[in-house]
Amino acid sequence: MIKVIIVEDDPMVAELNKRYIELVEGFEVQAVLHSADAALQMLDTCAVDLVLLDIFMPGMNGIDLLMKIREKGKSIDVIVVTAACDNATIMRALRFGAIDYIIKPFEFDRLKDALANYKELIQVMREDAVIEQKDLDHYILYKDHAVNVQLPKGIDRNTLKRVWDKIQSSQQKIFSTEEIAVQVGISRVSMRKYLEFMKEIDVLKLELIYGTIGRPVYKYRCATMGTQLITRYF
């Protein structure tokens, strides 16, 4: 049985995550804790395999807790479950050894897939002395089963991919809503919803462009980490 603790300051979210975990065979929730400090104390005294960790918490945040777990050299795996979707936080979590990163709000299937994949990886590691590359690709890199996160109402997954593919293939480094709408073949009103969504998740940046003649206009530009951030939505 894989022993899990949930570290989440919102009691309702923590209870929901607990119920989710209890639906997946092979996992046992040892405790639900509402602060990183409480989790750190428990980890010093109890054997835990996996932590479901929020980032935004009063006092010590989730990244700080993850850092302290690594500083102590504890053999504990961490899956981050958080609303934090900025590239700096994601990169810090991954660099400090988070094995997965799930962005709220998420569908149960996303967490279920993460837990099932983790359970299979643990079984393989315990049973096989030598691991083949294809197994690493399957369990660590998720190459053979894509996992998608929930999209806001009014955003279609296929259309989002069409828009993103057109942005990537376009010769224009900076573009207006109307320009990309014409290229994709949807209305300017519809396109604005997709571009605003991509701006909200830090895939695009909105800039005010001053021309030589006329009023300045707002145009979009791809963020540095745009591709890494948006692929989880396809």
From TrEMBL:
The modification 4-aspartylphosphate is found at residue 54. SUPFAM superfamilies: CheY-like (SSF52172). It is found in: Cytoplasm. Its main location: cytoplasm. GO terms for cellular component: cytoplasm. InterPro entries: 2C-system_Tx_regulators, CheY-like_superfamily, Sig_transdc_resp-reg_cit/mal, Sig_transdc_resp-reg_receiver. Transmembrane segments: none annotated. This is Transcriptional regulatory protein.
